[in-house]
Amino acid sequence: MFYMIDDVIRYSRIFRSMPVDVSEELRGWSWSSPPLAPPYPVKLTVSDITNEFCESGRFIYLRYVEKAPEQLQPKLVRGKFIHDVIAEASRIAKMIIYSGEIGRFRDEFMECGREAYGKLSLENVVDGSREIFNLLWSYAADIFSSSLAKAKARSPYLSVDSIAALTIPGISEYPVDGTLVGLTKTIRIDNLIPPSIIVEYKTREYQPIYEVGLAAYALAYESQYETPVNYAILVNVRIDEKRGDIKYYEKPVAISDSLRQKFIDLRDNLAKIVNDQLDPGKPGQCHPDCPYIKICKTI
Hints:
The chain has about 300 residues and is of the alpha+beta class. The protein is about 50% helix and about 15% strand. Helix 4 packs parallel to helix 6 and helix 5 (about 105-125) runs antiparallel to helix 6 (about 130-155).
């Protein structure tokens, strides 16, 4: 969940055992030609493309055409809180290393947790937030402290920048310009670890559509940097705050032609709804976590 240099090496070996061939026309740098070229000027987010709430696409119609206010359901707020804690833990850890307080890293990290919790709990009102935060923060402290010790042991001549990169190689909330492939200007990858491995965290049960989201990020990254992205990691984070238990399940994903084409098809269908202002109608069954579930029934 918090990826260290050893994890980068581990996954590099895993990816070597799962080769993937990608067609040139389905690389992000082919954004100006079909089938990747966006047919509409509409720009969507990755969550728009991969939402599992609404099979008819009315979710998108209500958001962009009716401009209906959304109401995040408790599971979505909980998921955002967990995402925010993971990102904040990485940020604080790097900040401490750059401040020069490496000798008392763990103590500083735990002290910074008090302020971090206050800020994040105000932004996300979640039942059990204190327990969730403490579990994640303590886990991060253990992982980062161990990684820092290994980095320092490599050489006494490493710069602070090198130590930070070896301790926490990933970049949280990495921004990518998705406009060339029909996405918004600043989409954010949960974690980008070298050389170009996309990591996405999910807190609800696995859905195949999540893998299409990985393809969306890969295509956007390729369109901006013209560097191939062949693999990603989907991480399902499961926290039981009552039992004091954290579990996470990793799924390596090859960004294949089929995933890329699924993204293109979904993007085009949903963009057409917005561009032509077409109400696709209500789905056969509404998802209980849909942020538009109440207002959808009235429009």
